[in-house]
Amino acid sequence: MQFKRLTYSDQIYEYLKKRIADGELPPGSPIKESSLSSYLEVSRGPVREAVQKLCGDEVVMSVPRKGTFVRVLTSKDIMDSYGLAGILESSGVSGSLELWTDSDMARLEEIVESMRQQSHNDSEREHLIRLEETFHETLLQRCGNDKLINMAKRSCAAISKILLHRQWSGLFPPSVFFKQHEVIAQAAYTRDPTATAREILLHYQETGNAMAKFGQR
């Protein structure tokens, strides 16, 4: 496997993320820098950088005197992560909803309509998931707190997008997945911050509780 010299670390990072998300490296799998370096035909430096970045993302964890492993999640880890994401996102949205313009609302409506169309075809699930990312980014479009936005995005991203991506992507039928987001959008259309925050919190709570079954007890 060949990598461009100036982007070794980033490409190895994406390579490892994909293998974990695809289930090729399940939770608890060892991440051995020497083996990766040999297999990918690169020096250990960029491999180490990629692994350190994954540690920062809480996708892998380093255990002293034992090595580095794909993170094993407990049910509480999952519920706590989704709970935090809900608190952060609901706060960011409810605190900035009054700043939304008609164009902002129209943009959200377009996304929801696209999600509705994709929800009728199970083969378009990955497209629906990409729209879901755009949906949540749009909800926070007027929040001026970049740290809050980043923390909200990262709170459960390691779970839904990488560690348990296959489980998360198939958790709800597309029609249910769409309805969950439509309810949030309908609350936002009223410009009622309390109602919108409530629906966001309920959404993350429901998803966290459903995902918790995939964690260790």
Please give a structural write-up:
This protein is mostly helical and 217 residues long. The protein has 2 domains: 63 residues, Arc Repressor Mutant, subunit A (Orthogonal Bundle), CATH 1.10.10; 139 residues, Four Helix Bundle (Hemerythrin (Met), subunit A), CATH 1.20.120. α5 runs antiparallel to α6. The protein starts with 7 loop residues before the first helix and ends in a 6-residue tail after the last helix. The model has no long low-confidence stretch (mean pLDDT 94).
What order do the helices and strands come in, and which of them pair?
Layout (H helix, E strand, L loop, with lengths): L7 H14 L11 H8 L3 H13 L3 E4 L3 E4 L4 H20 L7 H17 L6 H15 L6 H10 L1 H7 L1 H5 L4 H16 L3 H19 L6
Antiparallel strand pairs: 1-2
Helix pairs in contact: 1-3, 2-3, 4-7, 4-11, 5-6, 5-10, 10-11
How does the helix and strand content classify structurally? mainly alpha
Kindly provide the name of the CATH class of the largest domain: Mainly Alpha
Radius of gyration, in angstroms, nearest whole number: 19 Å
Runs with pLDDT <50, length 5+? Answer: none
Give me the oligomer status.
Answer: single chain
Shape estimate:
elongated
Please state roughly what percent of the residues sit in beta strands, choosing from under 5%, 5-15%, 15-25%, 25-35%, 35-45% or over 45%. under 5%
**CATH architecture of the largest domain, please?**
Up-down Bundle
Total strand count, please?
Answer: 2
Largest sheet: 2 strands, antiparallel
If helices are DSSP runs of H or I spanning 4 or more residues, what is the number of helices?
11
